[in-house]
Write a structure and sequence with these properties.
The chain is built from 7 helices and 9 strands, in the order ββααββββαβααααββ. It has 2 domains: about 1-115, no CATH class; about 125-200, no CATH class. It is of the alpha+beta class and about 220 residues long.
Amino acid sequence: MSEFIHITLQGVVYSATHRSEDDNDTLMLFCQCLAGVSQELSFDVLYRAVSSKWRLQDDISNPFGDSRESLVPAVWIFNLDNDILTLHKKSLNRMIPLSKLREGPVPIVEMEPFELPPLPKFTLDKDFPTPTWEPKFNAATRQTAFIGRVLEDFSYQWRHVFRSRYNNSTFRRLACAILRIVTLDFNVKEVARSRAGIRGTLGGLWTTTGALRVELPSQRTM
């Protein structure tokens, strides 16, 4: 199975995957990479040594809580701004200062367990009081016929965002996408290939929101 590895530095997220069956083996790899390396050179060393296929993402996604958790045993995050390495699993989170890894091999038991802060709770009635905005628009019949499927699959594909914390970049993409959906500001295009959606494939249609292909801001995570 493949673990997710993320490097965050000055608001930028670099992501890759790594095949490993044991957390200790992965941690030993990181120790070997960083042994004797200064904090200033940590990014360059990790970028070259850990993976050859990094990709830029808007944010760090959370695979735990839906079907993907059976395929992703662990998520490792190098927070280079705070010089910390964290390990996230379905039922446990651990952390360790990167300075420890620079000193030499560290067993997994040296990583301290910690709890993620709880997500803020709110209710629509309390936190979003009336009056609410009710947009007026004219839409083609073909667009309105699919709007329910677009909204349903959009919420499914963004499920890891809705149940987690996210940064300002992700919030802007999310807000822009929602506004364009509710105002039907998109073009409907049918394409031949299918994409996994809420129940396998949605009618053989593929899209950046799931049921259709629409011109919306995409969320560059997973």
